Amino acid sequence: MVELLAPAGDLEKLKIALLYGADAVFIGGVDFSLRARASNFEIKDIKEACDFAHQRGKKVYITTNIIPHNEDLIGVLEYLKDLESVKVDAIISASPYIIDQALEHTNLEVHLSTQQSAYNTESVNYWFHKGVKRVVLARELAKDQIKSLTAKTKADVEVFIHGGMCMSFSGRCSLSDNMTDRDANRGGCAHSCRWNYELVENDKKVSDEMFSMSSKDLEALEQIPFLIDANVSSLKIEGRMKSLHYIATVVSTYRQLIDTYEKEKSIVDFAPYYVDLMKAENRLTSHGYLEGLPGVDEQLFNHRSEKPSQLFIGLGIDYDHTNKIATIEQRNHFKIGSHIEVFNPSGKKFEFILEEMYDDLDQPLDTARHPKQILKIKVDQEIEPYAMIRRAV
Ligand code: SF4
Q1: Over the stretch 17-68, which tens digit does the pLDDT of each residue have?
Q2: Based on the domain organization, do 226 and 372 belong to the same domain?
Q3: Among protein residues, the one whose CA lies closest to atom 4 of ligand 1
Q4: CB 3.0-4.6 Å disulfide test: which of 28, 99, 212, 351 passes with 40?
């Protein structure tokens, strides 16, 4: 069975990812991890994450994937020992030194980070023979190249299927470092490629239009059957800084697609999966390198195209079956008369028109205005804990 691997920036997102169908999550510790601005986990949080995942037969991987300078290496072994003691399932690393320390002095399973740019079978086998169990392939590979690679290695192979791409080769970008003194390879990427730039030649503006250098995000719904048949071990969603709603929606969509393909050996219609995926606040997407070298349509040269979703309006907390009252936490404005869709972690979905709503003192409300306000709403069907409540479209 192929693994669906999801990102988690904090414990709440980790729980959402696992409850909505991820087999494993990857998280960053406070040390030695990229995504320095993601809410990284202290050891006690990592322990709680592992306990939550293991109780459900799922796994937690910790990113220790910086490209370290000398001053970054202080305390590596102690940190690895701490990770081993709280029973993490693997570390994801790029530094040969961190990998050696883990393999020589701990029993941690080691996965090679995409930051090491593994593009070919020889590189994958090199790391496998050193003791690395899994290799996260470079994102700049076509699906046929991935298939020929998996056929010639005993290493587990992990492939990115959804999320942000770099316009530079992964792990080889110094744009942010040069422009902001924030090193992308030590967790500080300022996304300088996504800024708006003027095009100037000999001090003269060439165009009135601003441009950016960003790639569209990766999306691989239609490539999933191919990747499963190519014996890819793990399908990875990227985005530790994304919202709860994004994680629930993207994870659940790929979960359903994978389950359907594994059961029926074909996908008759991808359209419903696209509809579900687009309910998350995606940037514009493309298939990245999976169908070959990206062309001009896979880049975002003249607009950023962030599409923030206003669909997500609340998070399920509890449901009183006797009185048919759900307790929820508000996340976006809605009101009496709103057409609402409930998307439960169990996969059950339903819609209703909101007719009754109360605050936490049982006072009737017309409008839910305040972020994170605890509300009670009348609804005939169960809203499960961690349910996504969103405006129906
Ligand atoms: S600046 Fe852009 S291309 Fe460079 S590492 Fe950051 S996201 Fe990737």
Answers
A1: 999 999 999 998 877 776 655 557 899 999 999 999 999 999 999 999 888 8
A2: no
A3: 173
A4: 28
